[in-house]
Amino acid sequence: MSLSSFLQLIRWKNLVMIALIQMLFRYIYFPAFLVETALSNLNFSILVFTTLIIAAAGYIMNDIYDIEADIINKPNKVLVHRKVSKSKAHFLYNIFNSIGLLSGLYLAFIINNLPFVAIFVITVLLLKVYNSDLKKRPLIGNVLVSSLVSLSILIVGVFDIIPMVNEDNAIDQYHAFRVLIDYAAFAFMLMLLREMVKDAEDVNGDKKMNMKTLPILLGRKRTNTIIFSFSFVPLILITFYSFNSFSNVPFVLAYMLIVVLLPLLYFMTKILYSKTKKDYIKASKLLKIIMLLGMLSIVFISLTIYYADQ
Length: 310
Fold this sequence. Notes:
single chain; mainly alpha
């Protein structure tokens, strides 16, 4: 197996995005707001590594289960069985999960809260159930994978913020965790939209796998309408959140309205009239960019607050 095939197998671009988001909060947001953290730089690196290696295992299992569908949906990108043997893919899946669970156990021990290792155990199990069954069902699989993406943000607070809460800093620590919840909710909504778009993109191969996704049950046109309608939820919530939180910080407010909301409005106009596979691929990529731009807003918020206090 070549390095290129391995990187494609673990979806390295998605992993880089997850790591970037976690590090933005740890090294930009937390210092700007004087958030007390429990993990050393080394242990935080282990937290990022644990998140990534378990996510990578999930991507490998996804390719194992989707061989037949991928031959139709993306014939040029089929890895398992062509560039990576099925047995080697299973081996990597088991090794990655084992390493992830062991490092998760170490982290739970470090913060003196062993029950927290259950987060990693449950994540591994849910990814297994998702790939083997839930992804074939309408919406349930979409909601689950979107929840796991938002968990990759929340887990930073669980291991780095919560263990440091005491009577003196409780309000500030929980406020910081609340911000993580807000961004995790944003990631959930955008990811849910993207998963529905990807279902519409992959409808031909999914039919062969006897999946019951929304585009298969309702057709692409009705699914487009559902995606368009649901898009109003993040649109309205982000608008309200931006004006409510940043009305006194014009630069941040302008960023949210121009850089995040305008592309979301553009996505809504495009998805309503999407018909071809190429249309859905473009819509999916656009949502990924919007999600990244939304997460990057934490940089502008942190820097604005930091320099305002100087």
